[in-house]
Amino acid sequence: MPKSPLELLKIDHLLSSDERDIAATVRDFVDRRVRPNVADWYERGDIDLELVKEAGSLGLLGMHLTGYGCAGTNAVSYGLACLELEAGDSGVRSLVSVQGSLTMFAIWKFGSEEQKQRWLPAMAAGEALGCFGLTEPDFGSNPAGMRTHAVRDGDDWVLNGTKMWITNGSAADVAVVWAQTDKDQPGKGIRGFLVPTDTPGFSAPKVKHKLSLRASITSELILDNVRLPADAVLPEVRGLRGPLSCLNEARFGIVFGSLGAARDCLDTTLAYARTREVFDRSLASYQLTQAKLADMTLELQKGFLLALHLGRLKDDHQLDPEQISLGKLNNVREAIKIARTCRTILGANGITGEYPIMRHANNLESVLTYEGTSEVHQLVIGQALTGENAFT
Ligand code: FAD
Question: What positions does the domain Acyl-CoA dehydrogenase/oxidase N-terminal occupy (predicted)?
Fold first, then answer.
């Protein structure tokens, strides 16, 4: 009886029954709500925002946070949910991880009690959507250089600037916007602001003509004299440490999530290779095909063991940023290689939207870039190994 790639190592044996149940619930949600529709969303360059409420009712939004209506699961369960969501599409996983790991986490970790009460229960239920504005047109890998700034005017704050590539931006109810408050000390005076998106001076035009992550909303955020009350600032953090700690949460989700895209490519390819006949035999029966399948399965399983190890470290409060960099660097890099190799096995069929493979491969180009590019993660690991900062 042929085995599926993750069954080969009996990886399920490393998971608790709660963790397996959560993965199965999310897989079922993806099978029902994402798989039948995602090719159409992708082609239209859109996503069904009803998914937000549905993900909320399943407890997936901010699921690893505690209190305020959040599910309070362990980190491994959150990772498995990301994996199952990304097996559907990286855009769907992005929607959920920007909501939970970036926006809700920022409020949960650095917000005042009033801010938490106002936003977190609604966001956990999927009644309010958030986005996280850090990147700017000229500052991606180096957010310390950001030009968006906030100045005091009496008790108020007035924000000006432009953010770029912001997931969920045009559909969000609230934006966490990071801005300089002290122009003489770049990076040091960065503060986070909660900006309700109906505030005058705020607009969020969509980025058009994307060839990757099309089933996801990506926007520019324009802040033109956006006036906010004194209590709009996140009180508990100052400096880049704030946004970077949120990024670590989201990067952790990608360590698992990227494997979902790879698993879906591999499952699709295995099924295809068994039925496709070339030179009068099934494609699966050729040694060259099997060598590719074996190598991809090996990388998928190594990636999963790495993700699980990092998840267990996170649940034990032992996870360091450079370990997350190892996981993100490896798992996204291997996932994209798997997607491209699977594409070769499907031949011409591999380039159509009828199969998910080219969509996953294209999505993974974004995943390779956001939450720290591969080069940035190499530099993080390099610094941990050598003690030398090669960023600047
Ligand atoms: P750059 O920083 O200009 O990098 C260009 C190249 O230079 C890369 O290869 C990079 O690795 C390399 N490089 C950079 N620094 C060094 C160095 N020191 N040494 C050697 N090479 C280097 N941002 C948000 O804030 N919120 C979001 O919700 C969000 N969603 C996104 C969704 C999508 C679909 C995409 C594509 C991006 C999103 N981003 C978001 C932005 C993303 O985080 C940035 O694109 C990323 O940080 C890289 O920045 P950049 O594109 O400006 O590239």
Answer: 17-127
